[in-house]
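Q: Could you predict the 3D structure of AAA family ATPase?
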Amino acid sequence: MHKGIPLTMPSSLTASLAYRDDWDYVAERLGWLDYRIAMRLHIQETLEPSSGGSDRSAFETKALQELLDGIEQYERRWTARMEESTKRGHRLSLPHLVNVFGLSPLEEKIILVCLAPECDRKYESLFELLQPGPGGKQLTPDVIATIVSDDAEERREVIRALRPDGMLRRFFVKAASSPRTGTLLAQPISLDERVVRFVLDAEVGLPATMADYTMHARPADVLEPLLGNQDVQTKLRRWLTNRSVRTEAAAAPIILSLWGEKGVGKKTHVRYLARYFDEPLLIVDMVKLLRSESNAENALQNVFREATISQSILVLDRFRPEDGDNPAIVNAELTLDKLSEMTGIVVLLSDRPCRTIDRRNRIDLEIEIAPLQDEERTAAWRTLAEPYEVAPELDWEALAARFLFTPGQIAQTFKSAASLSEWKWGVEGTAQIGWTDMIEAGYGQLNHGLAAKSKRLSPKNRWDDLVLPEAQKEKLRHACNHIQYKHTVYGNWGFNKKLSYGTGISLLFSGPPGTGKTMASEIVAKELDMEIYKIDLSQIISKYIGETEKNLSEIFDEAQKSYAVLFFDEADALFGKRSEVKDSHDKNANTEVAYLLQKMEEYRGISILATNYLQNMDEAFLRRINYVIRFPFPDEKQREEIWKHIYPVQTPLDPDIDYPFLARKLQLAGGSIKNIALTSAFLASGGRERVGMKHIFKAYQYELDKTNRALTRGELGEYDYLYEELNDGQ
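A: Sure. Here are the predicted structure tokens for AAA family ATPase:
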């Protein structure tokens, strides 16, 4: 024992045995440290003036020699036991850190000195003996240099190793929370908590501060199926293999950037790469990191350290923010610069390319993970359906043609559809997913802003509700088939190879107001299980040049995400008779028409235009429309059919309602008949009566009032006895 330091020589029985665990290793290394501190204290004492000795006499003392012998014996034992531990494949935490960070033996000793007070508080008192005065218990670079260095050159190496920009200061030691003023040599430092926990317990998980935005993935983890872009995976494996064996790349990281829309499979590709190379992943959500950490630079240092400790491929997910004005873009650029401190493979995942912010060409390779092709998307629907109980008649090709989803969106669609099915059936786990469940869940995945410039309609009518000549109905059904079987014609029959763009259809509905154009649009949408949005073109057109095109572009861009039916009402506001260009206004109008035609041809869904005046349409325009359907004013037979079906079956009706008379005398379009039926129902309900002829005539009278017309006795025919009652009070 020396100055209260219990010095023990290790047992010779364990001299050639492998270390049992980290504690066994650290305990023996701390024994070495005790001898080093005792030696420094002994030298310090013998050099005091009261000792009366010289430097040479101090080193020649018997006590000093015993200390030096003890140090040497500890070092020989450490060498022997480490060799045995290596042979047996024992991984010890502190030697692991030395190996993966490429630390020198002197740097390992520095870490050991910093670790000592975390293991035993006696070292605080020993440090105070080496540096008497206020704050002497705190560890400083000066004390560390005194303990571990044997000469002036080693002391300078210790100071260099602890410089602020050195590896030890970046990853292992940190300044005390309340540093003293003075020189750098006197600044208190301590070992980072993460390093302490790892050295003493390598099995401990990620630090709590990092758990919100980081996760480990092991090569043996169960993986989601790799859906699409198989050739990209093959090429990435080959490229990384060739790049990794280059000697010039050994000291620098290999930075790979994968970009593509959310859910396309970027992270899945990286997981398959990790399995192929048998390496773990450290996946970092950069958006969450920037939200969680006030000091992004320190957080990145911790991430780099964690990736090195675990020898993981570092994956920086959501690397480039979606909003170009987001301040996080600056952090993305700085992160690219700091990646030079890393080694191994670093993968950047983003929705957009990252090369545009790579000012110093850090990125070695950038690849787009492209959206699924038609065949890949169909296969993805089939594959991801396997864990679920689905109706056998589900048409995967039709779903693939309708929803241009990523694998992530398809997987989420099945989860939502399963929940919808369970809700409808009321028994969890036994409900079979049907077509309507898939359609509803699919539309639930869509994120668009069509409602900002249009109104969503809720179709309720079916084919039987539409009173129209059979030829027009047949043409409408053919239009529906165009969408319903597009996957067959464009995919299986190869027409997609003949057309450069646009797999949807365009329809033009023409006819007087109230003849069923809006109803027909809703029926088409309901027949195809599609959403429908009504756009009033009169509200889209702007007097400012370019503004109309901008509005139309926004509508079609959002529609591409939704695969909805676009119903453009009041098309006459834009599609008048195109004439020769006589002034700038004519030229601008023609430009707007041409632009809409282009967007309609590019759109993959259904575009419907409604006009009251077909004769105003340019023939060149009509040639570019797939189907032109005329809605004639209904004749007497058609009007009678409308009257018979206009009232819901729940409505109490007078059995004496004369439908042939109404069809013959009230020459109205379907829209006006609908208004009269609804008004008559309210009149009857207010009088607590059945709907009868007097209610219908009264509602007809209100309809005439809209155009400043009066109901005449002659129009009532054999019902003229109601004339006085209808005009009572007027």
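Q: Anything worth pointing out?
A: The first strand starts at residue 173 and ends at 175.
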